[in-house]
Amino acid sequence: MFTFALPKGSLLKDSIRLLQGVGLDFSGFLDPTNRQLQILDPTGTARALLVRAQDVPVYVEYGQAQAGIVGEDVLREKTPKVAKLLDLGFGGCRMSIAVSGESRYRSPLDLPPHSRIASKYVGCAREYFDSIDLPVEIIPLYGSVELGPITGMAEAIVDLVSTGKTLKDNGLIEIEVLYHSTARLIAHPLSYRLYSDRFSELMEKMQIKA
Amino acid sequence: MFTFALPKGSLLKDSIRLLQGVGLDFSGFLDPTNRQLQILDPTGTARALLVRAQDVPVYVEYGQAQAGIVGEDVLREKTPKVAKLLDLGFGGCRMSIAVSGESRYRSPLDLPPHSRIASKYVGCAREYFDSIDLPVEIIPLYGSVELGPITGMAEAIVDLVSTGKTLKDNGLIEIEVLYHSTARLIAHPLSYRLYSDRFSELMEKMQIKA
After folding, report:
1. Anything noted about its domains (chains A, B) (predicted)?
2. Which domains, from first to last, does chain B contain?
3. d(CA B152, CA B136)
4. Which of A51, A52, A142 lies at the smallest CB-CB distance from B55?
5. I need a surface site. Which of A117, B94, B100, B125 has the fewest CB within 10 A?
6. CB contact, 8 Å: B109 with chain A?
């Protein structure tokens, strides 16, 4: 049985649409009354697990799912041991540095040493500020990172931006884009080698549909 | 201005009720249409920030909030530098080890060395298994930890249990309780010393209402 790990949240709808395009129907996950975390495709040939986006690479790395769909942002942050197969094109967003519009910072180079940077992406934030040799204090947050600069706890944030509405609503401005992120098809390395024909077929169909 | 950090989720309602009992009204956060992350009490004497439970100690540690309400489970996992003032009594739950009901494990001592343990509470899980000198592999997950044993990825989970319904629905059984958790009042250490009279008054009122 081929198992896909699918991410809850913003990538779910497009992920299910993509899999429908290759003949696998997991649309039951889109039913608001659904409480199941795993469902079978009606043809009985594949299964899907519905997990948090950050958990998708975990299920794939441990081989509980042979394939998964997840944002590049999660892969960069967690660096899991998975095969990255395809850029699926959807779910486009960017990892950005943002500051309060009222601050005088207009570039990361304006930030003073030992600035406080709030982020859910601690690894990515650390890597970037190391790369410009600026010592900063990273404050790990789990949500509503925009409160960091608003409350005066942090000079800047490193966060994922899609439309930019949240930043705007909170009076924040982007001063740097670290990278662009889209949804990726990933695979358990051993499964990818074992079922190379099946993966080739899947990827070919996905590339036509994507 | 005195600022409280309040946790989104299961402790919010009781936290707001408790603060209403001491004359501070932040019930605006309970309005389902509310999108504000900070509100003022109508008397204008205090402010509240609405943040993720795991972020409450961060805002208090950095002094952006003078006080906060958060579960003991978060304090044990993150060990933030905050003053723990009161056990508020509500939000009772327990940190437990659970396994599939179909497994033969009925005690943590039955788990074989190098078992895989899925958990959102990596620090707590690590500490417990170190304490019984059992080498295990901790698999960090962000949500739906119960999928760990169901998919065969993990022998056991370490997770917060309140009613036990999620475990039961997923065929899991508790084999050990690590500790019991309730909501706590925490304070920024410096603020606690600076505003000791205000904190004493607050705690006295809370103890009567709790």
Report:
1. Lacks the C-terminal regulatory region which is replaced by HisZ.
2. 2-91+182-209 (3.40.190.10), 93-180 (3.40.190.10)
3. 15
4. A142
5. B94
6. no
